[in-house]
């Protein structure tokens, strides 16, 4: 799967492409990461990429001409890729969207804005989709594009090493993922739950289901609105509630 990032700060993105699991996935040719400097597509003496907004007001706006050329160049390199504009005004990104991108395997070209954003005419003509990573405003689209590339890449077979690694992830299923522990078995007086040391796979599976449900109940009860409790889950929570009641009474 091809990822191309159009940016004024390629060193930010290239560093991401060179490290950790994403760096290894690129080395192993599971994904491709390209970075295009929008400034390379300027034609004036000063290589200007921004200008004052028509109508006045603060801040600068990214000029349309270099952006258009950069997007067309990226499309020539990867004609079937989708052009995605990073903007806080776009559709909100989530795990379901990450899965859809990973399944479709289409290349993605990310346009990263800076300053006040980009000239409106680019939205109208060259962009397939607008995406936001959340209801807050950052100084540029690079971090947002990296967040998307990262979450899509880890769903591509081979990138995480073991495909089982993401099956139980939060937001892949309907509940948050269970609690994790590693060695030592005791840390600051807190022991790893006995059952995880037992080697009994069925008991461990059951414990994890309970853990996942309890965490969802405590941290993200809104997820129960998206996917109602099954009768088995209801029973687990009832038993937990009885345990808590008994504890309070003691
Ligand atoms: N003035 C604009 C925000 C500009 S922020 C507005 O109010 O809508 C500058 C650039 O950062 C944007 O062009 C976009 O590419 C990026 N950006 C900022 N916040 C973002 C977010 N939450 N999601 C995706 N991109 C974002």
Topology:
Elements: E1 2-7, H1 10-17, H2 20-27, E2 32-37, E3 50-51, E4 61-62, H3 64-77, E5 82-92, H4 95-104, E6 108-112, H5 120-126, E7 129-132, H6 142-153, E8 186-187, E9 190-191, H7 201-219, H8 223-226, H9 231-249
Parallel strand pairs: 1-2, 1-6, 5-6, 5-7
Antiparallel strand pairs: 3-4, 8-9
Helix pairs in contact: 3-5, 4-6
S-adenosyl-L-homocysteine is lined by residues 86-89, 112-114, 116-118, 132-134, 136-138, 140-141, 144.
How many whole angstroms does the radius of gyration measure?
Answer: 23 Å
Which cofactor or ligand species appear? S-adenosyl-L-homocysteine
Count, helices: 9
- Structural class, by secondary structure, is alpha/beta
Mean pLDDT, rounded to whole units?
Answer: 96
Characteristic terms for this protein:
16% strand, binds S-adenosyl-L-homocysteine, 9 helices, elongated, two-stranded antiparallel ribbon, five-stranded parallel beta sheet, 250 residues, alpha/beta, single chain, 40% helix, Trp Operon Repressor, Chain A, 2 domains
Give an account of the 3D structure.
With 250 residues, the protein is of the alpha/beta class. The chain folds into 2 domains: 2-153, SPOUT methyltransferase, trefoil knot domain (Alpha/beta knot, 3-Layer(aba) Sandwich); 186-249, Trp Operon Repressor, Chain A, CATH 1.10.1270.20. It has helices spanning 10-17, 20-27, 64-77, 95-104, 120-126, 142-153, 201-219, 223-226, 231-249, and strands spanning 2-7, 32-37, 50-51, 61-62, 82-92, 108-112, 129-132, 186-187, 190-191. A 5-stranded parallel sheet has the order 2-1-6-5-7, sandwiched between helices. Helix 3 runs parallel beside helix 5 (120-126) and helix 4 packs across helix 6 (142-153). The structure holds S-adenosyl-L-homocysteine.
